[in-house]
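Why does residue order matter? Because the sequence determines the fold. Keep that principle in mind as you read this record.
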Amino acid sequence: MTTGAGQSGSGTEEQDWDEGATDFLKTVGKQVKLWRERAGLKQVELGQAIGYGEEQVSSVERGRRAPKPEFLDAADEVLGAGGILAAFNEDVERARYPKKVRDLAKLEADAVELGAYSNHNIQGLLQTEGYARALFGMRRPLLDEETIERQVSARMDRQEIFSRWPAPILSFVQEEVTLRRPIGGRMVLRGQLERILEVGGLRNVEIQVMPTDREDHAGMGGQLLLLEPKNGPKVAHTEVQQFSRVTTDRTAVRTLEARYGIIRAQALTPRESLAFIEKVLGET
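Structure:
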């Protein structure tokens, strides 16, 4: 299997939602709004009733955010929609991600093991909302606000991988420079470093830092992602600029597996890495 999967900020989303998906999410949003107004509720009141913030309700109604099944199920019940809103769940799930990344997102959701090396910014699964929004905001050509919101929402949704059970085995290697580059400003970076430390404390996660002063470095070919699904062959994902490639070719995957293993051996240990990140946080 080889397919393109446009990526932005090691997160695999790109401005490639098809128009049908965009129009569909706007239709779902209008339905939520109509049922809410019919029930005589304000956005904040609906949000309180179903456990979501006013801004999230607003984003769904405007078609800027794909609602999760829990949102539509709860809204359907509270608004007395008789299953009409809940019936959108399956189609909304297909529209949640950009069309070129859906297969990769499914692989992440099904992975029992994942390893990622990132060399120019924080890996997408580790990003905070503020960091991700800053990354998409600096894209060239510029993205409109609606697209940025959907990109950020899709990226945050994929982080459910950290709360799954059985817990997958996850490892990340970050270049030192990615921990120091102030994407979004100093406070955004501080929040991002704190998030990495939080995730790094999970029992199934190992985070390592590749120091800039390493003379021997197996990762000079660029970032990479390896996924092992519950069923099926291991998958590799690589990218350069907006061009991405997902492959199950055994020779290619074996080469990247070996390379990732060397990268991990050359990097600081997980314990050393968390101490290093704490030091950088103290300096930020």
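The radius of gyration is 20 Å.
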